[in-house]
Design a protein that fits this description.
The complex is a heterodimer. Chain A is of the alpha+beta class. Chain A contains 3 helices and 5 strands, in the order E-H-H-E-E-H-E-E. Chain A has one domain (about 1-135): Heat Shock Protein 90. The chains are: A alpha+beta, B alpha/beta.
Chain lengths: ~140, ~110
């Protein structure tokens, strides 16, 4: 089993380090492009949400990330101590209409749900934990 | 973020490079909107050199698209392929924008007005 962990502060500037961390993991394990894209977009969506909306106190907080490759699937986890928030409970976005009708509410969560094979949320004590996984097609 | 801006037969072309995500979306969106506000009525955004786009990027595109409509300009996209195409399909944003398979066709359609 191959695993990588990262701890970041709740600042949007940290997202560049996260992107590089994901790209390094992807290169080290030769992840196919659709799997890599899923990780890159999913982490971007969830982390920007946590950092922007997860804390009411304006303080520094630590967010814990991990990616593991095990038994033909990539499993990612994001754990934070922000306000209780289950992204899976968010309503689905309206995916119809031209530019004038569109709003973007829920699009990020929709990406996370659709790109991954499984997504789950758990609240434990004062921490949110979001997990998402995607099967890695094996090279034949 | 590297953003190439050019002109082709009266059409402004915008070619971002890298990715349009929470980090880069603001710069990208600001650039396109500044172009429209400075008078560009025909704008093509070529996404061929973008590896992926997240909801922040779609938000920037939507804002630019609305601004183009408000100023009675035309904005269209090209270079939507691979992973970027997959993300457009999931978001169903293909219905919100004019998307053309080639840059040449995109420029021609936007020119035609």
């Amino acid at each position: 089993m191959k695993r990588a962990g990262l701890r970041i502060a709740n600042r949007l500037a940290e997202l560049e380090s996260v992107r590089q961390w994901i790209e390094q993991f992807g290169a080290a394990h030769e992840l196919p492009l659709p799997v890599l894209t899923t990780l890159l977009v999913s982490f971007d969506e969830v982390l920007s949400n946590i950092i922007s909306y997860g804390y009411a106190d304006g303080d520094d907080h630590e967010i814990c990330l991990s990616i593991a490759l095990d038994d033909g699937a990539v499993l990612a986890e994001i754990e934070d101590d922000g306000v209780p928030y289950d992204p899976l409970g968010a309503p689905s976005p309206d995916l119809s209409g031209g530019i004038g009708e569109r709003s973007l509410g829920g699009l990020g969560v929709h990406f996370v749900r659709t790109l991954n094979d499984e997504v789950s949320y758990e609240r434990r004590g004062n921490r949110n934990r979001l997990s998402f996984s995607k099967r890695v097609p094996s090279a034949s | 973020m590297e953003i190439l801006v050019g002109q082709s037969e009266g059409v402004s072309t915008v070619e971002p490079r890298g990715r349009i995500d929470s980090i880069t979306a603001k710069e990208f969106g600001d650039r396109v909107c500044a172009l429209i506000r400075s008078g560009a009525k025909r704008v093509v955004i070529d996404l061929a050199n973008i590896a992926y786009i997240s909801s922040a990027g779609f938000r920037a595109l939507l804002i630019a698209g609305k601004l183009a409509e408000e100023t009675e300009g035309k904005l269209a996209l090209c270079g939507v392929a691979g992973e970027v195409q997959r993300l457009f399909e999931i978001s169903a944003f293909g219905t919100a924008f004019q998307i053309y398979p080639t840059r040449e066709e995109c420029i021609a359609k936007v020119q035609a007005g």
